[in-house]
Amino acid sequence: MNAALFRLSHSRVQSFFRCRKQYWWDNLSGERPPPEIQTAAGIIGKGVHRAMKVLCETGEPEDGANELDAYLRMPAHAVAGPGTGEHRTAFSLFAAGCAAHQTIVSADRWAELDTWVASPRRGVTIQARLDRADQMAEDRFQVVDWKTGRFELDEVVDAQLDLGHLALRVVRHVPRTATVRAVAWNLRTGEQRVRELERRDAAATVQRYAGIAARIQATTAFEATPSPACGFCRWRPGCPDGNATDGGDRVEDEDEDAPEAKGDEAYGGGPA
Ligand code: SF4
Question: So what's the architecture of 105-220 in CATH?
């Protein structure tokens, strides 16, 4: 990892544009973050994603179900434990995931690729991750972002798909001419939001994030922007602005554990 590069992730960008005070607390305050707010929806989402990862790895629904079962039986996840409606919802979402898995016929597949794409020229390194990738043909790939929520903002979903596409190109060194179907696949509704992406889109993603990084670095005032999302902000107990609002819609956030940088600027730098 080049320490001089500015580190950016999907969740950091979302946080900056949602509430700069929250961004400041998360990234600049140096304060120890309060524990994350656990919700039943969050536990279901994480459990189903873990099960889908195992399903992708082994191809056996039973393995994914075992993973989900053990996750939901953890005492910390009792709100979605056996006998609850949340537990039934989680297994119903996983059943939809198994059906989705059956429809994907590919030559090879990878679960949960997660990397950092460094652009020394632009002074930025970007976290890029995906839930699942498949090679459908020599020059054709698919990236899947599993969704388990009732509501997603289209532009947020598209940003996640663009980063998943970037992760695939960097980690798998796909051919420069390859095209990628990036799909946000909602296991609750069956809805698929699809983006058709090429190598130039990966370059555009890096350029866009570099521009955001420059803007964040030039920011000196980190004002609070109270909104319904305050109800799910872990800094709220110490935030007078946030305490003045009513909590509301759930805003999905990403785990920001930062693995070591692996990528470089060769997004899509595989054989021509
Ligand atoms: S509670 Fe609301 S206003 Fe305060 S930091 Fe969090 S998101 Fe921003």
Answer: Alpha-Beta Complex (3.90)
